[in-house]
Amino acid sequence: TCLIVDFGSQVTQLIARRLREAGVYCEIHPFNLVDETLIRRLAPKAIILSGGPASVEDEGSPRAPQMVFELGVPVLGICYGQMVMVHQLGGRAEGGHHREFGRAFVKMAETSALMEGVAGRGEETEVWMSHGDRVTALPPGFHVQGASPNAPFAVLADPDRRFYGVMFHPEVVHTPKGTQILTNFIRRIAGFSGDWTMGAYREEAIKKIRAQVGDAKVICGLSGGVDSSVAAVLIHEAIGDQLTCVFVDTGMMRAGEADEVVSLFRDHYNIPLIHADDSELFLGELKGVTDPEQKRKTIGRLFIDVFDKHASEVGGAEFLAQGTLYPDVIESVSFSGGPSVTIKSHHNVGGLPERMKLKLVEPLRELFKDEVRALGRELGLPAAFVGRHPFPGPGLAIRCPGEITREKLDILRQADAIYLDEIRKAGLYDTIWQAFAVLLPVRTVGVMGDGRTYDHVCALRAVTSVDGMTADYYPFPHDFLGRTASRIINEVRGINRVVYDVTSKPPGTIEWE
Ligand code: XMP
């Protein structure tokens, strides 16, 4: 095991992700829960200290147990983790007067095992800096291996004890060779063989689910998306018929969604499934609601009501399982005093009301989308299902800005189906991360045949992305857009104009609300 001590950085999960990519098992534990007992139980072969929002000079700012440095295992300190290491080993770190954020170039003063294949002696490499503190005195045994113009202590090392510290973030994609740096640490320096796989993750996850749930009953809300499906199949593997799935038709699903999900779960997997039509309830409660956050919160609340109801139908389920992913978590909650703000209340995280009776089981909370797909393949889910574009819990509600009506949803569903059909025909479905139609609360004038029309505008969205955290719009050829627009306008009554969204994330988000 590699132990990652989390000091509250927004990107700690990315460290774990990179290690999983390097085929190494790791566990993240918040700094305040890392004590001698935990360390003895885990017996880590390497330790990584994450970044975090604090300054080592602040009173009561977080530290690592001193034992971390006495185990004889390699330690890598990243950003705040580097300051902690320096401070606890007898050096000095201070609140820097100038904070440094963004791109920088680190020049190596010597050859370093950490930077093997990244930058040799005298060479530079691009990194992503984000820090406030800086080192002012080195601990005994340490020396500087690399520096940037604003960070004279960018790479520190005590190679004899295998202690390394970097002031930048190797875990983010903006450090182009960051994966190599972390892989060097974990394989070259710490000696991990790198043969850990998604299969092993599956076994671990199953053990954890069994330990959490015991012999209680669990219900799992299926949304038609990949995440909830993978969560359901995983949990079913762990606890069998203690699990019942619930597919709630909110009236805001895509065309054909219900049939596909029901047949996959009932017929293919033989997992007990309740197919509930609660569309009256959802659409009724959403009447007159136009604010995006209020929509999300209303839907979140209704889901809980509905699940509470179905939980009692299956004879008292105690747990609700959800396919919450890491990006949902980080965008919905503020972390341990860190600077992260709520962008949207993803309904399966921040939108949940406090009064919920069911306890949550969220076995995918640490994973990113592409890892969930890998896990889905590992679990034998059909390729077409695993490759499906993400679909948000609140469904078409957040693709229909303004008030939602059955009529608008019907129009949107038809346009969306045509758009996806054209994407499949063009062979682009798997190249695109996510594509969907949005029905705008705007009407424009058109002319069809000899008549005037006054109908809705449909916006098309398609993005490429690796994990949903950042995204680029997809550059469709114009003839594709033209063909799709004319099909939508000709075949869908109620739409007379189509526009294409060319916004990336950031500054946009993928969904419109
Ligand atoms: P945004 O719009 O925040 O979306 O850029 C990022 C990814 O998350 C999906 N999404 C959701 N998924 N519940 C979900 O399960 C939600 O409330 C939710 N909102 C957005 C979105 O479709 C995209 O893939």
Summarize the helices and strands and which ones pair or pack.
Elements lengths: L1 E5 L5 H10 L4 E5 L5 H7 L3 E4 L25 E4 L1 H9 L3 E17 L15 E14 L5 E6 L2 E8 L4 E4 L11 H12 L8 H16 L4 E5 L3 H14 L3 E7 L7 H12 L4 E5 L1 H7 L6 H22 L5 E3 L4 H7 L26 E3 L7 H10 L4 H4 L19 H20 L8 E15 L2 E14 L7 E2 L4 H14 L3 E6 L13
Helix pairs in contact: 5-6, 5-11, 6-11, 13-14
Number of strands: 18
Low-confidence stretches: 333-340
CATH architecture level-2 label of the largest domain: 3-Layer(aba) Sandwich
Helix content: 25-40%
CATH topology of the largest domain: Rossmann fold
In CATH terms, the superfamily of the largest domain is HUPs
Separation, N- and C-terminal Cα atoms: 40 Å
What percentage of amino acids are in beta strands? 15-25%
CATH class identity of the largest domain: Alpha Beta
Name the hetero compounds present: xanthosine-5'-monophosphate
For the biggest sheet, the summary is: 9 strands, mixed
Mean pLDDT: 90
Please list the strands of the largest sheet in the order they lie side by side: 2-1-3-4-9-8-7-5-6
